[in-house]
Design brief:
The protein has helices spanning 12-25, 82-88, 101-116, 142-152, 174-177, 190-193, 206-215, 245-251, 253-257, 264-275, 279-291, 300-316, 324-330, 338-348, and strands at residues 2-7, 30-35, 55-56, 59-60, 66-67, 73-74, 92-95, 120-126, 160-164, 184-187, 220-224, 229-233, 239-243, 321-322, 353-354, 357-359. By secondary structure, it is α/β, with parallel strands linked by helices. The chain is 38% helix and 17% strand.
């Protein structure tokens, strides 16, 4: 029996999809996880999502759907977390390609549904920005979720929309999301996290890291992203809720606008018009800026001294936790140094490692 899970925003949503599958369906079924190769400059130095032509070693599933096996490789200079993810998960990772707009994603979904005849189809979003109206001042990355939502609502098959970790993406307040939730589906536990625990040791997703941390009992306020957004870690954090798909589409003005788009450029243009920005433009600008930054040597003494100053300031702001992505940016290091920084800090101050987050201490 096959389950199909669509990772709404790619990245950490695919990791959370594996945890969701284990929690809801156990080991008796296999999953096909349809996800973007869109690493937000964390692993891939190129802005925007990658398509099938950015990889070698993909395997055909249907006419327009390719799976990403462990042996696949992104073509330099592109990067992708998917091959490594495929090597560590028991599921099939299928590449969600938005370059033909919502129409292309709809076609991919229809082909998969016909080919797999899945026992269930879940559309999973960690955080809940898939429910954005489009004008929220805290909204950062609406396009990926809007594309998958626009496609899913056009497929002639029952699709269940699930939101895990309400508010953990730092984009939509849990207070705004709560009235939209239907019956709770599951609350993740520390035992559920064990299925993806080793992946979170290297995967850069912040929202899924906080989802796992709250499932393990972390509470407080976590500072994330390059902008240092404060995200509450509460008892709501590990919860998974179902949301009516039609209600979500009615609320998401970007998803409604891009339903008939046939290119990613068209979808971007709608995002600029409705939301006032395109997240890929932000990535383009940041990638150009990063290209001009000289490498900063990671000297343990300097890093630990900077860390002490950062933690003192963060505690004054009421922050209790942060992510290694945010720490890398806050300490003015390059994204490629995140793993090295993580190893240094865990080795130097193991008591502060509140896996997979960093506890800034009392």
């Amino acid at each position: 029996m096959t389950r199909l899970i669509v990772a709404a925003g790619g990245g950490g949503d695919a990791v959370a999809a594996a945890m969701l599958h284990a929690a809801l369906y156990g080991d008796e079924d296999q999953a096909v996880i349809l996800t973007y190769a869109w690493d937000r400059l964390l692993i891939d130095p190129l802005p925007g999502p990658r398509g099938a032509d950015s990889f070698t070693g993909l395997e055909p599933v249907t006419q327009s759907v390719w799976s990403v096996p462990a042996e696949a490789q992104p073509i330099a200079p592109a990067g992708s977390a998917l091959p490594r993810l495929a090597s560590e998960l028991p599921h099939t990772l299928a590449l969600l390609d938005p370059h033909q707009g919502a129409e292309g994603i709809t076609r991919q979904l229809e082909e998969l549904v016909s080919h797999l005849a899945p026992a269930s189809i879940d559309l999973l979003d960690v955080g809940g920005d898939i429910l954005a109206q489009g004008d929220e001042p805290t909204l950062k990355s609406p396009l990926a979720d809007a594309l998958t939502l626009a496609a899913c609502c056009q497929v002639n098959a029952p699709i269940r929309l699930l939101v895990a970790g309400p508010g953990l993406d730092g984009e939509i307040s849990p207070d705004d999301l709560r009235p939209l939730f239907g019956t709770p589906v599951h609350t993740f536990t520390a035992e559920d996290v064990e299925t993806i625990g080793s992946i979170l040791e290297w995967h850069p997703s912040e929202a899924t890291a906080m989802l796992a941390a709250t499932a393990r009992g972390a509470r407080g306020i976590c500072e994330v992203r390059d902008a240092g957004l404060p995200v509450p870690l509460t008892d709501e954090g590990p919860a998974v809720h179902e949301v009516d798909l039609d209600d979500a589409v009615s609320r998401n003005s970007l998803a409604r606008a891009i339903m008939t788009t046939a290119t990613l450029d068209e979808a971007e243009a709608h995002s600029r018009e409705i939301c006032g920005f395109s997240e890929i433009d932000y990535e383009r600008n940041k990638a150009a800026w990063l290209k001009d930054q000289p490498p900063v040597p990671l000297t343990p003494e300097d890093v630990l001294s900077q860390l002490d100053r950062f933690q003192a300031d963060a505690r004054a702001r009421g922050i209790t936790h942060t992510t290694f992505r945010h720490l890398t940016e806050a300490l003015n290091l390059n994204g490629s140094q995140r793993d090295e920084l993580r190893r240094l800090l865990i080795h130097s101050r193991p008591d502060q490692y509140d896996a997979p987050l960093w506890n800034i201490g009392a």
